[in-house]
Amino acid sequence: MATPEQNMATVRQFFEAASTANFDDFDNYMVEKFVTHGDALFPFFMGREGMKGGVGFFKKAFPDARLNLEEIFAEGNKVVAHVRVTGHQEKEWLGVPASGNEYTWTASTIIRFDDDGKMVERWVIEDELGMMIQLGIMPPLH
Length: 142
Fold this sequence. Notes:
CATH architecture: Roll
Order of helices and strands: HHEEHEEEEH
Structural class: alpha+beta
Distance between the termini: 50 Å
Oligomer: single chain
Helix content: 25-40%
Low-confidence stretches: none
């Protein structure tokens, strides 16, 4: 059985692989039938290939996007992580033309691991309101 420390190391490696678009590395971190329970941007998808596609779609619009780990802790087979996402919009995203502007928002996630230390399931919520305001999809709140 993987330890909480090993699972946290896997989460760190996963975020680095997502940041550098090393999607083949996802095979090392998650089971084939990995499930994400998300929010409006990535509401629900199944499978490791779905995760590769979702992150790949995002990285096309924000090729320099980084998922910077700000907080992480683990207990048992679950890891909680909070990341700050930063990057420049180089292509259309959610109907918004490329601006070249830098954007930043946060996301929090809970990841469940199996006994072999592979990610099985993930729940995530992102600061989509902040993202929508930055992209100009919504006006700033006053």
